[in-house]
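Help wanted!
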Amino acid sequence: MLNTIAVVPNYTEMLTAPAVIFQFLYVFTFLLHIIFVNLTLGGIFSILLCKYIYKTYNDSVYNSIAHDLSFINTYNISLTVTTAIAPLLFIQILYDKFFYSSSIIIAYYWLSIIFAIIIAYYFNYIYKYKLFYLKFRIAGGTIFMVIVFILFLYTTFMLVSNTLLSVNPEIWKEQYKNINFLNIPTIIPRYLHFLIGSIALNGIFICIYSKARKSLNENIKTKMFILGKNMFIYATLLQFIVGFWFLFSHKKMIWLNIVQGYGLILIILTVLFSLYIIYLFIKNGSLLLITIFGILTLILMVILRRLTEVYYLEPYLKNLKFVSHYQFSALAMFLILFIIMLVLFAYLFKCIHKNRI
Amino acid sequence: MSFIPYYSDLVHPAVLISSIAIFHTFIAHFSIGMGLYVIICEYFAYKKNNMVLLEYTKKNSSLILFIATVLGALTGVGIWFVISIIAPFATSTLIHNFVWFWASEWVFFVIEIVTILLYYYLWGKIEKKLHLIIGIIYFISGYCSLILINGIISFQLTPGKWLETKNVWDGFFNPSFLPSTIARTGFCLILASIFSTLIISFLKNSDIKKYTGRISTIFIVVGALFCIVGTYLWVQSIPENVRSQLSGGNTTLTHFFHYYIITGVILIALSIILELIFYKYFNIVFSIILLCVGMTAFSYFEFTRERVRKPFLVRDYVYANGIPLDKIDEINTTGILEYTNVILKRKELTDVQKGELIYTSECYSCHSINGFNNLRSKLEGLKAEDIFYVIDGIGYNPLMPPFVGIESEKKYLAEFLQDRLSNK
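Answered by r_m:
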C-alpha cells in the first residue's frame, strides 16, 4: 500500500515573509485573475450566442454586438495572461510540492495550454480585424471564434484538472503515466460550475459595458443590456443546481467540513447575493449595486475555494517543513512598486481622459 | 525524497526547455529594444513633422503588440511551466529565494502590457506628448523587467556570496549580473534593429528607407558595442575553472562560444551593409535572413550560457539532475533509490528496473538513450562491468555531476544501460 503522505517531496523550504502574506497575495491575485478568466471565457460564449441569435432570428444588431465584444475580448485575454503570473507565483510558495507534482503528471496536457492560448489569441485577432477578407464573408469568420471557444474550454479544463489533481495526492499513483481526467474527483461538477460562473459574471460585464460605451447606438445598448441580464439570470439559476451538485460531490469529510464551518456562511451569503442581483435585474435596479454584489459574490466564492483547498490538503500540510528567512527589504521593494503601479495607472487614465483628441 | 520525475520518450526535457527558452528570450529582448526604437522614431517624426515616419513607427509598435504580448507573454509563462516540470527542486529554490523579485517583475510586466495596449490603440487619439510618455513608460518597465530576470538567471551561474550568506541581495547582485545586463542591453538594441527591417522591407519611399535604415544601423552599432563589452566582462566574471572550459577546455562549449561570436559578427556586418548601403533594395528576404542569423547568434549565446553552468542548475547548490549538493552525503549513505519518489517504487524490482529508476533520477535530465545527447553513441558495445567503471569516473568530467548513491546502485545502473543499449 502506497503511503500517500510520502508521495509529497519532503525537503525544507525557505519562507521569505510570514505565510499569511503569501496566503493573502495568493487569494487576492487569484481573484484578479479569475475575473479576467471569466470575462474571456464568458466573452467568447456571448459572442457565439450573439452570432447564433443573429443567424436564427436575422437580427443584425446581434452581429454588431458580437463584433463589438470580440474587440474587447483581446484585451481580456491579455489581462488574463498578465494576471495569471502572480497567483502562479504565490501558489508555488505555498504549495509547489503539490502543484509541481500534478503538473508533472499531466505534463503534456499542461504544457499544451500555452499553444492553445497562443492559437486562440491569434484567432481572436483574425476575427477582430477581419483578416483574410473575412468582412466579405457572410459568417464573418465565426468559425475562428468557435475554435477560440474550444481552445479556451480545453485550457480551462486543464486548469481545473491540474488544480484538483494537486490537492488529491492519493490519486497521483494511479494517474501517473496513466492519466484519466474523468477519474479526478469532482471534476465534472467543478468544471461546469466554473463555466456557468463565467457566463454569469460576463453577463454583468456586458451590462456595464453597454452603459459605459458611449459610441454605441441606443438599440445596440438596449439589446446588449438585455443579453447580459439574461445571461446572468439563467446562468445563476442553473448554477444553484450545479453548485450544490459540486458541493456534495466532494468527499463526505470535505463537504461536512464546509457546511459545519465558515463555508456554510459563505454559501448562504453567495446564494442571497445572487438572488438579490436577480431581483435588482428584474426590478431594473442600480447597476452599481449589481456590480458591487457581483464582485462580492465572486470574492466569497474565491474564499470558499481557498477554504476547500485547505480542507483537501490538511492531512499533508502538517508535514510541510519551512524555515523562516525573512526578506523585508525585498518585500518592501515589491509593495512600493505595486503602489507606484496603481498610482501610475490612475494618473495615466486620468491624463488620457483629459487629453483625448 | 525527490519529486515525481518527468519522463517522456517523445520530448527530452533539455530539448523542451531550450526550444521554448530561446524563442522566448529572443522575443523578450526584441520587445524591449523595439520599445526604445519606437519612441525615438516617434520623437523624430513629431520633430520633423514627418507623417511617413510616424506611420512607420506605428507599424513597428504593432510588431510589439502582436508578437510580444502574445508569443512573448505566453512563452514566458511556458518557461515557468517547463522548468517546474523538468527541474522542480531548482525551480522551487529560485522561486522561494527570489519571490519578491519575481513579484516585482510581475508589476513591471503588468505595466508593460497595459502601456503597450494603450500605446498602440491610442495612436492619434490622445495628445502627442502623452502618447510619447506612455511609450517611454513601456520601455522603462520592459527594461526593469529585464534587469530583474537577469539578476535571477545570472545568479544560477554565479551565486557569489549568497552561498554563504543566503542574503537575496547578494544573490541578485552576483558577479555576472552587471556584465550580462550590459550584454543583454546590446541584444535588445540589435534585435530591435533587425526586427524593424520587417517593416522597412515593405516601405516604398526610398528617403524614408534611407532614414529608418540609418536609425536601425545606429541601434546595431550601439547594440554591438554593448554586446562586446558585456560579453568580455561576463567571461571575466565567471569562475576561472569554468572560463577555461570556454577557451578550449571543453570542445562543445568552446564551439558554442565561438559560433556565438562568429554569427554575431556576421549579423552586425550584414545588418550594417544592408541597412546602410543597400537600403534601396532592402526586401523581406533580407529581413528574414537577418532574423535567422540573429536567432542563430542568440541561440549560441544562450546555449553557451546554459552549458557553462554545467554540471549545476545553481552553481555549487544544486546539480543539473536536481540533486542538491547538501544531500550528497546522505544519499551516498542511504542510496539514490531511497531518495527517489515513492511513487516509482514497487515491491519487487529487478536489478535492471532499479537501474532504470537511477537513470531517471541521475542521468535523464541531460541524456537520453537514443535521442538528445544520447548514451548510445558513448556507451554502445560496452559490457556492464565497463559501464560501471565509466560511471565511477564521471565525477572527473568537470561538466558532469558525480554519481551519487551506494556502490550496488552503480551496478544496477550499468546493468540497465547495457540492457537498454543492447536493444536497438
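OP: Thanks! One thing I noticed: The radius of gyration of chain B is 24 Å.
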